[in-house]
Specification:
The structure is a single chain. The chain has one helix and five strands; from the N terminus they run βββαββ. By secondary structure, the protein is mostly beta strands. Strands 1, 2, 3, 4 and 5 form a five-stranded antiparallel β-sheet that branches. β4 and β5 form a beta hairpin.
Length: 92
């Protein structure tokens, strides 16, 4: 079934930048409203993960390429609607 992202960076999305010298402390959470013809959570997570890619789309400095995607979760919020959370951070 088709999965499409209806809205990007809905309320609750957040970026926490480290203003010190260590950019590896920067974290981001992106929230999406997703429409899906499937009721299977794993299919929604896989489709959104493929659409997003492995790196956060914004750059936070010139010394690194971006935050890597670490986890994706989804919860059903209505008929054929999901809220998907993507968490980006550097693993330690």
């Amino acid at each position: 079934m088709a999965v499409s992202i209806i809205a990007f960076d809905i309320p609750g999305s957040d970026i926490v930048k480290n203003y010190g010298n260590d950019h590896k402390l920067t974290r981001a959470v992106r929230k999406f409203l997703v429409s899906s013809g499937t009721e299977k959570k794993d299919e929604v997570i896989t489709a959104v993960g493929t659409a997003l890619g492995a790196i956060h789309p914004h750059t936070f400095g010139t010394d690194y390429s971006g935050l890597p995607l670490q986890s994706i979760s989804a919860r059903k919020v209505g008929r054929r609607r999901w809220i998907v959370d993507a968490q980006y951070f550097y693993p330690f």
